[in-house]
Amino acid sequence: MLALLPLESCRSSAVPAAFAGPGGPPPGLYRCWAGGFAHLPAGTLTLAPNGHYESYRPGGGGRYAYSPGTSAIEFINGDYHYWEYRGIFQRAPQSSDHKDSIVLLPLSASKPIGAERPGEYQYCYFDSSQL
Fold first, then answer.
1. What is the pLDDT along the chain (131 residues), one digit of tens a residue?
2. 21-39 CB burial, b ≥16 within 10 A, e <16
3. Using CA atoms, how far apart are residues 86 and 103, in angstroms rounded to an integer?
4. Which of the 8 DSSP states describes residue 27?
5. Burial class for 100, CB neighbours closer than 10 Å (0-12, 13-18, 19+)
6. What is the pairing mode between strands 28-34 and 62-67?
């Protein structure tokens, strides 16, 4: 399980996604699922290398920044910013299902990843069919 970090620590070292360097989430389409429900889709998230993202809703995207030190994704504007969400990028060894993922969780979340109620966080997985 990963501990949650306060938003301030995410903002202090966040860099534009295009400059995040190796080790960050790869750009592309991610398919999101409600945590704890194997077959309950929760939408999509698309990350572009230029720091833009798209949500499941056409026109609902915006800009994001990735902090390599905390693996945090800050949504600067757009849907996920409006809904007060942030992302945490997990490499396979860190995640409970042993897959690279982006976990979307509310800014107010107080539970560590993996200890949340079913459906409370969204788990987004890179869609490798686009390669």
1. 333 333 333 343 444 444 445 678 999 999 998 887 767 888 899 999 999 999 988 889 999 999 999 999 999 999 999 999 999 999 888 887 888 899 999 999 988 888 888 888 999 999 888 76
2. eeebbebebbbbbbbeeee
3. 8
4. S
5. middle
6. unpaired
16 is written with which tokens?
């534009």
CA-only gyration radius of the chain, Å? 13
Helices (H) and strands (E) in the chain, counts: 2, 9
Q: Which long-range contacts (CB under 8 A, 24 or more apart) does 126-131 make?
A: 126/25, 126/26, 126/28, 126/29, 126/30, 126/100, 127/28, 127/29, 127/30, 127/31, 130/28, 130/29
Name the residue ranges covered by the structural domains of the chain.
7-130
Q: Scanning the structure block, which residue is given the tokens 């459906």?
A: 119
Taking the CB of residue 60, how many other CB atoms lie within 10 A of it? Answer: 15
Residue 53 φ then ψ, to 5°: -135, 160
